[in-house]
Amino acid sequence: MMGPKQEAQEALFYEFSLEDHVPLDYLLRSISAASAPIFLSSTATPAAPPSIPSC
Predict the structure, then answer these.
(1) Tens digit of pLDDT for each residue in 1-55?
(2) Helical (H) or strand (E) element with 20
(3) Measured at the alpha carbon of residue 39, what is the angle toward residues 38 and 45, in degrees to the nearest 5?
(4) Nearest to 19 by CA among 10, 36, 38, 32
């Protein structure tokens, strides 16, 4: 065959889920679950409308 040698290309994307690899009883899962509602409620602010420059 003529031309450059064709090599198999590695996958560009992989399907990976942390849920499948982190045990259910892992310590950080319980910390994350307990802190998520607190973090979201204390940092959530309403969105401000964009400012329109005056000419």
Answers:
(1) 567 787 888 888 888 888 888 898 888 877 767 666 655 555 556 666 667 777 6
(2) helix 18-21
(3) 110
(4) 32
